[in-house]
Amino acid sequence: MATFFGEVVVAPSRAGVDDEESAEEAREETPEDREIRRELEKKREIDVLWTLKSGAPAGSCAEEPFVCSKFIVAIGHNAAAFLSSFILDSVCWEVVGVVKLWNEWCRTSNTTNVLPTDSFCLFYRLISDPTVLLCQCSCYVAEDQQFQWLEKVFGCMRKEGLQVTILSTCPVADYKTQESTLTLPSPFLKALKTKEFKEQVCCPLLEQPNIVRDLPAA
Amino acid sequence: MFVPCERGGGAASSDFKGFTLLVPAVSVGNVGQLAIDLVISTLNMTKVGYFYTDCLVPMVGNNPYATAEENSVELSINAEVYSLPSKKLVVLQIRSPFIKNKYRPFCQALLSWVKSSKCARVILLSSSHAYQRDDEQLLGTPLRYLLTPDLEKAVGGLMQELKWKEMEKVAAYPGINDSEKVLHIPGGGITKLLFTESCSKGIQMAVLLKFCSEGDNIPDAFALVNYLNEWLQLIKSEVNTSSQWKIPSSWRLLFGNGLPPALF
């Protein structure tokens, strides 16, 4: 099937709106439908809980946004494992927050004491420099929750002077290139950066027509 | 929803009063979106902003219209606005599908932006499933148009001159009651919703659509963009207009990567 820049859907028709779905919407919503929809939306809501000062109770957001100079986000099992193996330790980093969410693919653990095989989304802060924040997100954040995640997490931070680095992985088979991916030496790194990012990037930039989707894109 | 780019133009670059707005519907074969890619790429339009919306699946990549190393590193996301003031043209490109249950809020937000930005008229490029055509529609041109009543007054005569075919209505209850006719655009995504909402809100909107199927939709995109060109005259229409449209660099590798040499 033909694909083009921005092709992210795997449905049989790329129209994006099933005729059945649009016909359903056309019917008047009964109070029961509304109630069901509201309950579903509530169930899919994301809660971001911060414990900024040790000993202080967990809150949804500090009264004023906290200062952050560097925010590193690792999305997916591989990226989360990379941080666990090479960066995180209990001496230099402390847990400062957790995201609780549910969707059809996963439910996050309730504790901050997680196993590598759990689905979780935790925030850590560097003890020696509390403006450096790290997020390990090994759970899948569904399409309709990605925007919420973004707003709730970034809503608690001061954005001036903030540098964000996102670490993520994609299957090599999804990489579009002139040669076959079989002969490509993998794994390999590619980057995307905003024009405000002035530092040297440590690897080549992602070439067209490749794209990034889901939470890293959001 | 609309966030302007911080460029030298500033406020002036996002003043669309009196402009024609081109919008694609995410529809069968993505023909509208491909046609818009051709317009942006050929006319070398400048990005003037984007839509900050939670209604579309997020995606990001490097500039899809890159022509050289220098202009290939600008980030591009799922809903961006480009403009060409010399032709009073502004274009919205949508690059990903709607998140479930979010297409209605998106339509509302889009139409309210159309009103607030004071665009003169909107042209929606779309497509519809070819297999749903009736016997008469199987013959002749696969291209159709629709006009809201407000735009009908302005350009209805031109459509007659161009000998364009208006999209036929179908029976609401086929076989039972053939007198009641409704508009039916299967595979058209938000086309019908946007059109009916524009009719009721007094927005001047035209829909240009092509009957097609999923597959290699590049020829469909060319057909649709040439159809649009008959009206708007964006590029000089000569005998072989297909070669006048510039294919963007992001259309590379549409049918997959190269083959592994070990296969042979």
UniProtKB/TrEMBL annotation, chain A:
The keyword Chaperone applies. It comes from the Eukaryota. One of its GO terms (molecular function) is proteasome binding. The keyword Chaperone applies. Residues 13-35 are annotated as: Disordered. It holds the Pfam family PAC1. Residues 24-35 have a biased composition (Basic and acidic residues). Keywords: Chaperone. GO terms for cellular component: endoplasmic reticulum. InterPro entries: Proteasome_assmbl_chp_1. GO terms for biological process: proteasome core complex assembly. Belongs to the PSMG1 family. This is Proteasome assembly chaperone 1. It comes from Nyctibius grandis (Great potoo). The lineage of its organism: Eukaryota, Metazoa, Chordata, Craniata, Vertebrata.
UniProtKB/TrEMBL annotation, chain B:
Gene3D superfamilies: PAC-like subunit. It comes from the Eukaryota. The keyword NADP does not apply. Coiled coil: none annotated. Keywords: Chaperone, Nucleus, Phosphoprotein. It is found in: Nucleus. Transmembrane segments: none annotated. The keyword Transcription regulation does not apply. Chaperone protein which promotes assembly of the 20S proteasome as part of a heterodimer with PSMG1. The PSMG1-PSMG2 heterodimer binds to the PSMA5 and PSMA7 proteasome subunits, promotes assembly of the proteasome alpha subunits into the heteroheptameric alpha ring and prevents alpha ring dimerization. This is Proteasome assembly chaperone 2.
